[in-house]
Amino acid sequence: MAFYDNQSLYSALQELGVIDKNQLDEAFDESKKQNIKLENILLEKDLISDENLGKTISDLVSLPLVRLGEIPISQEVLQLIPEVVARKQKVIAFNKNKNGLYIATSDPENIQILDFIEKKFGVPVFVYFATQQDINNALFLYKKDLATTFAEIIKENIREANTRQLSQLDPPIIKIVNAILNYAYQNRASDVHIEPLKEKAIVRFRIDGILHDILSLPLDLHPPIVTRVKVISNLRTDEHSVAQDGKLQFKLDEEDVDVRVSIVPITTGEKIVMRLLSERSRQFSLLDLGLSFTDLKKVKAAYAKPYGMILATGPTGSGKTTTVYAILKLLNDRGVNIMTIEDPVEYNIEGVNQIQVNPKTNLTFAAGLKSIVRQDPDIILVGEIRDNETADIAINSAMTGHIVLSTVHTNDAATTIPRLLDMSVEPFLIASTVNVIIAQRLVRKIHTRCRVSEDIEVKQLAKYIDESLLKKFFGKVKTVRLYKGKGCQLDHGIGYEGRIGIFEVLEIDEEVRKAILKRADADTIKKIAIKSGMTTMIENGLEKVKQGLTTIEEILRVTKE
């Protein structure tokens, strides 16, 4: 077994040529100055994917690579190493057979723990390398009994709550709110809804874009829970008839999680929605979002230009903000001034000047953008183009030597052009400033650990998808082999875990520019773009279905209008 340091990792990556030399040099210098691991800086700056980093390091340390997220790990094997040891020593037991015990580690230098495991179990130990991110994700497998624990905490504290008059400071209420947030985090929920109904209150989690009912609470517990959330979010507890927005933070072993809170009065009481903004969910890397190699090249060519506009488009919750943040992080450099105007500022990015929209002080997108252009910016991010004034300022900024990133609400890439025309932007301005339009949706990924294949008749698929497309992807066959998640304890029987994007990337080339100048409609622009090589969203989705990443049902769910 060999070991590695920053210098050896730098040399290996330089030889492979997978990262731009200037960016790699900058990251290496930063690692020396701050005395931190080069790999951490590379991941933070999205210069390499976690999987490619793993491959590089596994070669350096002469250990085989394992991707723990892609293999089934039984609880029996996992529990051979107690959670506290696994967490502290960065080791996971992932397989055991007649040959011995298979261990993954992100710290190959920790020979002591590996020797201890071998002596303890008295069997040969086979050591594999796994990235720190992969180890961290695998640690969640220890939480299999969390549902039982959660139910017990809630049940016990409801029982205690029923014995006396409660305030938001009573331990049962504090424990219930903490348990809800903790359970939401462990289940990778993006949002928590606590809704009062006529006879009970209900808690729902949004997981991978879909809301799930989690538990019911006695209705008399709802007011103290609302008050508790208001107190820790610094909101007015005596105000019940107006909407209030706030923030809170709760601490876990894994990280401190920021939570955005919204409380609104509804006919049955006050409804709470809490959005969890965890570090774990901030997967901003373009490499991991789901862009194909061809589409990635188009996006890179667009942001490599010295000026112009990059637009991400799609409905609410389609991942537009994540995409523009991913590009912004790649452009983030000490040599440039980056300014943003957002509503809300969801994630803070070091080195980026972020402004929060505030209608109460008349700080709108348009007003904020006017101020930004006087701040000598190189790169501007406008959270959303909603009106004529914002569109006009953004377009003019892109024309005068700035890179402008923004989002628009349209169904597909081509429809964005007529949308801008509707906002009174002149065709010649659109044609000369927009570099690329990225349309997208988010689909749920099949849970790898319970993925199974099944044969489907093409004539069944043809009821929902154009036959020419099916022929293009699967050839002239009567049946095709597709994949699905059969559902397991780890995914609550859903069969999905995580999400990935499906995209269509419209590059504004010469032919598209001519069509824009003629005020061509969206259908005409789309046909020209397809002729020039644009992959449509449904095609990108079918490619991911073919690869076993998602299902036909998911593609149809997010693309139907």
Task: Write a compact overview of the structure shown.
The protein has 561 residues and is of the alpha/beta class. The chain contains 24 helices and 18 strands.
pLDDT under 50 segments (min length 5)?
Answer: none
In spatial order, strands of the major sheet run 12-11-13-14-10-15-18
Largest sheet: 7 strands, mixed
What's the end-to-end separation, in Å?
55 Å
Mean model confidence by pLDDT: 88
Count of helical stretches: 24
Radius of gyration: 26 Å
Beta percentage is 15-25%
Judging from the principal axes of the Cα atoms, what is the shape?
globular
Structural class: alpha/beta
Total beta-strand segments: 18
Give the helices and strands, then pairings.
Elements: H1 6-16, H2 21-34, H3 38-44, H4 50-60, H5 75-78, H6 83-89, E1 91-97, E2 100-105, H7 111-121, E3 125-129, H8 132-138, H9 146-161, H10 171-186, E4 189-196, E5 200-207, E6 210-218, H11 222-232, E7 244-251, E8 256-266, E9 269-277, H12 286-289, H13 293-303, E10 308-313, H14 320-331, E11 338-342, E12 353-356, H15 365-372, E13 379-382, H16 388-399, E14 403-408, H17 416-422, H18 427-433, E15 434-446, E16 451-457, H19 458-461, H20 467-474, E17 479-485, E18 496-507, H21 510-517, H22 522-531, H23 537-546, H24 552-559
Parallel strand pairs: 2-3, 10-14, 10-15, 11-12, 11-13, 13-14
Antiparallel strand pairs: 1-2, 4-5, 4-9, 5-6, 7-8, 8-9, 15-18, 16-17
Helix pairs in contact: 1-2, 9-10, 10-11, 15-16, 16-18, 18-21, 20-23, 21-22, 23-24
